């Protein structure tokens, strides 16, 4: 999955809300990287909470992950079982969280980018700095 752009929930929230301060930046990310967008499964679940509450979770998931050539976003859902060196995923995720003192959802985004050789797209300052420190910030 090298070359993937691993999206944080902040990007998806901004993309989904036309009035969001980062909406234009989120749209730029989505347009500039077609076919290269990914989200960790935990981030997908986090993003889907509101659609699920509204009774439209399945439709939102289909829009998120369905083929881009059919009007969907075409986002790949990452659910790794190990990092690039074969280290079990729970150990990799725990190390990323411990090294950067991130909350688990943010650690999952960074860990997924590191494991896939991808870059992190986020509007969260702490997660962005951790991605910069790891050399995987978009």
In short:
The protein is of the alpha/beta class and 138 residues long.
**How would you name the oligomeric state of the polypeptide chains in this document?**
single chain
Largest sheet: 4 strands, parallel
The count of domains is 1
CATH superfamily: 5'-nuclease
Walk me through the structure.
The chain is α/β, with parallel strands linked by helices and 138 residues long. The protein has one domain (5-134): Rossmann fold. Helices cover 54% and strands 9% of the residues. It is built from seven helices and four strands. A four-stranded parallel sheet has the order 3-2-1-4. Helix 1 crosses helix 2, helix 5 (89-100) crosses helix 6 and helix 6 (104-116) packs parallel to helix 7. The longest helix has 13 residues, at 41-53. It starts with a strand and ends with a helix. The model has no long low-confidence stretch (mean pLDDT 95).
Attribute tags:
single chain, 138 residues, alpha/beta, Rossmann fold, 4-stranded parallel beta sheet, 4 strands, 9% strand
List the helices and strands and how they pair.
Layout: E1 5-7, H1 9-16, H2 23-32, E2 37-40, H3 41-53, H4 57-65, E3 76-78, H5 89-100, H6 104-116, E4 119-121, H7 125-134
Parallel strand pairs: 1-2, 1-4, 2-3
Helix pairs in contact: 1-2, 3-4, 5-6, 6-7
């Amino acid at each position: 999955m090298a070359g993937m752009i691993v999206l944080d929930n902040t990007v998806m929230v901004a993309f989904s809300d036309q009035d969001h301060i980062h909406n234009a930046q989120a749209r730029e990310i989505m347009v500039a990287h077609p076919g290269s967008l990914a989200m960790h499964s935990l981030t997908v679940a986090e993003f889907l909470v509101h659609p699920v509450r509204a009774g439209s979770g399945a439709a939102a998931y289909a829009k998120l992950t369905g083929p881009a050539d059919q009007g969907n976003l075409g986002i790949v859902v990452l659910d790794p079982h190990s990092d690039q060196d074969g280290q079990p995923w729970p150990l990799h995720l725990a190390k990323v969280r411990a090294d950067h003192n991130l909350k688990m959802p943010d650690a999952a985004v960074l860990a997924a980018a590191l494991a896939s050789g991808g870059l992190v797209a986020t509007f969260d300052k702490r997660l962005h700095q951790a991605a910069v420190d790891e050399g995987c910030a978009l």
